[in-house]
Design brief:
Elements: E1 2-9, H1 13-22, E2 29-36, E3 42-45, E4 48-51, E5 54-64, H2 66-80, E6 88-94
Antiparallel strand pairs: 1-5, 1-6, 2-5, 3-4
Length: about 120
């Protein structure tokens, strides 16, 4: 199993969500996050200077079976990529085990219902 964490532009979240659903990834979590990037500039809006060194992004967190990891990554890239600085990052982390609390099932089966063929 793999945990895929993607930090994406907030404006791209709906597109990424749709791409994941099209790739049959139906369960994931997301969070609004803030980070610091390389860009250090102030922006002026109506005469007030705003510090833009703190960047708002969305963190999408998904745990998938190994066989679904690459299609998940490709779906995120396709939907989130603009080609400009600040598109984000994807991290792939190995998961040792998963346990469904309700039934005690462990491993891949804990991620999806047994009748689903994934």
């Amino acid at each position: 199993m793999k945990k895929i964490e993607a930090i994406i532009r907030k404006t791209k979240f709906e597109e990424v969500k749709e791409a994941l659903l099209e790739a049959d990834i139906e369960w994931f979590s997301y969070y609004d996050v803030r980070g610091v990037g390389k860009s250090r500039q102030g922006r002026i809006y109506r005469g007030v200077v705003y510090d833009t060194s703190s960047i708002e992004r969305t963190l999408v967190s998904i745990v998938v079976r190994n066989k679904n990891a690459e299609k998940t990554v490709q779906a995120i890239i396709k939907a989130a990529q603009t080609g400009e600085i600040g598109d984000g990052r994807i991290f792939i982390i190995p998961i040792e085990d998963a346990i469904r609390i309700r039934t005690g099932e462990r491993g891949d089966i804990a991620l999806y219902n047994a009748e689903q063929k994934r």
